[in-house]
Amino acid sequence: MAPSRHFLMCRPEYFAVEYAINPWMDPQAGADAATAVRQWEGLRAAYEELGHRVSLIDPIDGLPDMVFAANGALVVGGRVYGARFANVERAAEGPAYLSWFTGNGYEPALAATHTNEGEGDFLTLDEVILAGTGFRTSVAAHQEAQEFLGRPVVTLRLVDPCYYHLDTALFPIDGRNVAYFPEAFSPGSQEVLRRMFPDAVLASAQDAAVLGLNAVSDGENVVINQEAADLALELKRRGLNVIPVDLSELRKAGGGPKCCTLEIRS
Ligand code: ARG
After folding, report:
1. What average pLDDT does the segment 101-107 reach?
2. Probe ligand 1: pick from 7, 10, 18, 22, max atoms within 8 Å of CB?
3. Is the CB of 116 under 6 A from ligand 1?
4. Whole-structure pTM value
5. 190 Cα–ligand 1 center, Å
6. Is 165 marked active-site?
7. 146 lines ligand 1 (CB under 6 A)
8. Distance of CA 26 to CAs 17, 31, 259, Å?
9. Distance of CA 202 to the CA centre of its chain
10. Of 225, 219, 218, nearest in space to 243 by CA
11. Does residue 259 carry a catalytic annotation?
């Protein structure tokens, strides 16, 4: 069995699509909190069946995107780099997540000076942290995180508004390799990814469009949106155990399994 992970999640009791801060969101389309909760419970159960530990932060009425816990912070080596949201609609989530961490004894916990959306744009590998910019997280935050965490941070530029967070276009398969959708990145960043990960899994536009890259892998098991068929096949071919989940309701806000999951790395 893969070593147990510790995840922070937020039940989507107040989930809704009330504003549009990414191209997936259509406030007219209608999103249902009860359906979102049911699907989210499936994700949580999948983690617990894999032996991972799930902690919960209380949802806050009026913060419909708070279910997307990945955005709340970046935690590496027990150090908590707090989020500072790009959009005013989500601004209150930053302090809410930070106070969960301080309230639960995590330190040091830093309230960031620079705009960053936590693990939405920071993905941690064994030797480096990959960091997205272009839509939400600033390059200054990449530097701030590097200084605070003492890990090398590699900036990657996102160019497609549908893939506004790094975790919508790339996921670590394990500590050394990734899967990604090349077209979501600038030409220079595509070249960086090719050099760093010659053996990466490259995803198709179809798999990216169902947020198939918003997956969570523990190195053996990959929890992934059920619609990402070709990507699932390729992961299986590489010996990974694929666990499909249905998060279609949360996709209406532009989120998938990874968005709902903040990893607490001790
Ligand atoms: N509606 C949310 C936003 O636009 C979705 C966040 C998804 N989270 C993620 N880690 N990609 O901010």
Report:
1. 98
2. 22
3. no
4. 0.98
5. 23
6. yes
7. no
8. 7, 9, 18
9. 18
10. 225
11. yes
Distance of alpha carbon 203 from alpha carbon 48, whole angstroms: 27
Q: Is the CB of 253 under 6 A from ligand 1?
A: yes
Nearest CA to ligand 1 atom 1: 253
Mutate to test the pocket of ligand 1, among 17, 21, 68, 130 (most ligand atoms within 8 A of CB): 68
Q: In the predicted model, is pLDDT for residue 1 greater than 80?
A: no
Euclidean distance between CA atoms 75 and 263, whole angstroms: 7
pLDDT digits (tens, 9 = 90+) for 240-262: 999 999 999 999 999 999 999 99
Q: Provide Rg for the chain, Cα atoms.
A: 17
- In order, the DSSP letters of 63-79 are -TTTT-GGGGEEEETTE
Query: Tokens for 107?
Result: 């330190």
Q: Is 120 in the pocket of ligand 1 (CB under 6 A)?
A: yes
Residue 19 CB neighbours (<10 A): 14
Question: Domain spans of the chain?
Answer: 6-263
**pLDDT for 55-69, tens place per residue?**
999 999 999 999 999
Domain 6-263 has CATH 3.40.1180.10: no
Q: Which residues contact 156 (CB under 8 A, 6 or more apart)?
A: 130, 131, 132, 133, 166, 170, 185, 189, 192, 193
Residue length of the chain: 266
Contacts of 208 (CB under 8 A, 6+ apart): 162, 163, 168, 169, 181, 183, 184
Residue 176 DSSP one-character state: S
Pairing of β 53-56 and β 6-9? parallel
